[in-house]
Amino acid sequence: RPDLAAALRELRAQYEALAARNLQAAEDWYRARCARLHERAARSQEAVRASRREAGECRRQLQARLVEMESLRGAHQSLERQLQELEERHNAEAAGLQDTIGQLEDDLRNTKNEMARHLREYQDLLNVKMALDIEIAAYRKLLEGEETLFNMGSGGLPSLSSLPSPTYSFQPRSFSSST
């Protein structure tokens, strides 16, 4: 029995030593595992924080882009209204200019017609003048011929030659044009 009791004690001591070592190994393993998990959790938390910061930054950028987009929409609508007003104003001005061009063309046509009428009147007056000039020249020739005859025939009549030579006056006829 003593040997058995000593062997049992020795086995018990070995078993307890093994159990203590296993317990120590399990605690070390547990602590190492916990430390790794804590480290991984810390990294994950940091990654989550970074993701949240990035998501917040993305939200802020999105809000800024939405505000900018709304601003650009308003500017676009304003420019569209201005463009439409300019087109309407341009169309009105073009219509006014077309009316002015039409009036100027009518005035030009009327002026050309009036100039043609004046030219015809001038041509008529020029024809009358030419006819009068021809008539005057004919009367002059006749008068010169009579004077020559009179002077030739008065050579024997001294009392007639002392008379002053006759002067003729011409009264122009007035013509009225039908305008």
TrEMBL record:
Which superkingdom, per the lineage? Eukaryota
**Gene Ontology cellular component list:** cytoplasm; intermediate filament; postsynaptic intermediate filament cytoskeleton
Where does the record locate the signal sequence feature?
A: none
GO terms, biological process? intermediate filament organization
Q: In which residue ranges is the amino acid composition biased (Low complexity)?
A: 157-166
Q: Which residues form the IF rod domain?
A: 1-150
Annotated spans, Disordered? 157-179
- InterPro entries to which the protein is assigned, alphabetical: IF_conserved, IF_rod_dom, Intermediate_filament
Which keywords has UniProt assigned to this entry?
Answer: Coiled coil, Intermediate filament
Q: Does the keyword Ribonucleoprotein apply?
A: no
Q: For bias kind Polar residues, which ranges apply?
A: 167-179
Coiled-coil stretches:
69-128
One GO MF term attached to the UniProt entry: structural constituent of postsynaptic intermediate filament cytoskeleton
The family annotation for this protein states: Belongs to the intermediate filament family.
Q: What is this protein called?
A: AINX protein
Organism encoding this protein: Elachura formosa
